[in-house]
Design goal:
The chain is of the alpha/beta class. About 50% of the residues lie in helices and about 10% in strands. Helix 10 crosses helix 11.
């Protein structure tokens, strides 16, 4: 028994030490991308730049002197973001294209625009997506009564509603990145000396959480898609950015909100406890510059991912506590 415990402890220690060693090696060997693409000449396409981290990234790239193309669905907010950026850089460095990442027509329009104006792009950043905040059974209207803990059967209409919600989540979190990859990977490969793609995902894509079944599964699907694409296209630097909860109004985009009422937030207020948008945006830019593969913030979440495989019961309990799920 002692030998077994000793081996198990050694294995756990190795599992925790390995990612730190690999991370250090990555920092030591990664060349700065600016030697191939100077900051003032970088052509950056930001899909989902009307709010949140995408908008903050637009500001930071504008300050750095890059040429930026902002893409978003909401025209008024898109123009507001563009005006903010034009105050931070040369006005002709900012392009805008109103479009939905899940629309093939819109994405090909974006591609035609950057080819016409810039002869291509160097960096694609995908921040667009939608949230989903409810337990899956709640989406289908299946909730226990006060008198009994058992669940009623979902009606056919309720199941159809849940399927519709899932399709909306897939459009935003999977098909958007899917269409963007098909549209822009050939362009990146043909026109940039150091092509790069950053996918803004979520730590929920690798550590499951209650009330996030739809959100996490659709984000996980796009993450795995891009991880496979990184193997198929080694000339492009792929960065997978997996943050914890971020401040802001992202939850307002929830596709599973109750009808005629605001979304129900189960966790603590993200604007009080979430990661700062500026910090996340700056770390995204650093990861792109360093050609980092996978970034998880805060760092403790990297250990949480490992701990989920070592001690899943504990991580599941912690997830229920975080999301106030009983």
């Amino acid at each position: 028994m002692f030998e077994y415990d000793h081996i198990r402890t050694a294995s756990a220690t190795f599992a925790l030490a390995l990612p730190l060693g690999l991370l250090l090696l990555q920092y030591l060997k990664s060349p700065q991308r600016s030697s191939q693409v100077p900051h003032s000449q970088e052509r950056v396409l930001i899909l989902g730049s009307t709010s949140g981290v995408g908008r903050t990234l637009a500001h930071q790239y504008a300050k750095r002197g890059a040429r930026i193309c902002l893409v978003g669905r909401r025209e008024m907010m898109l123009e507001e973001a563009a005006e903010e950026c034009r105050k931070l850089c040369e006005a002709d460095h900012v392009l805008t294209v109103r479009g939905d990442c899940a629309s093939v027509e819109d994405m090909t329009k974006v591609r035609d625009t950057v080819i016409k104006e810039w002869d291509g792009i160097d960096t694609v950043i995908i921040t667009a997506g939608v949230s989903a905040l409810q337990p899956l059974m709640s989406v289908a209207g299946v909730t226990p009564s006060k008198d009994s803990p058992s669940l009623p059967h979902a009606t056919a209409d309720a199941i159809n509603h849940a399927v519709g919600v899932a399709k909306a989540a897939l459009d935003g979190n999977f098909f958007g990145p899917y269409i963007a990859a098909i549209t822009f990977i050939p362009l990146l490969r043909s026109c940039s000396p150091s092509p790069s793609i950053l996918l803004l995902s979520t730590v929920a894509a690798i550590i499951p959480a209650p009330t996030r079944s739809l959100y996490a599964s659709t984000k996980s699907a796009s993450l795995l898609l891009f991880q496979a694409l990184a193997i198929e296209h080694p000339r492009i630097s792929f960065t997978f950015f997996l943050p914890g909860t971020i401040e802001g109004d992202f939850r307002a985009s929830a596709v599973d909100s109750p009808l005629n009422s605001p979304p129900i937030i189960h966790e603590a207020d993200p604007n009080k406890h979430g990661l700062r948008r500026g910090v996340v945006a700056a770390r995204c830019m650093q990861a792109i510059d360093r050609k980092e593969k996978t970034v998880i913030i805060p760092m403790i979440m990297r250990f949480g991912h490992l701990l989920y495989w070592i001690w899943p019961a504990y991580m599941e309990w912690r997830a229920r506590v975080k999301y106030n799920f009983r």
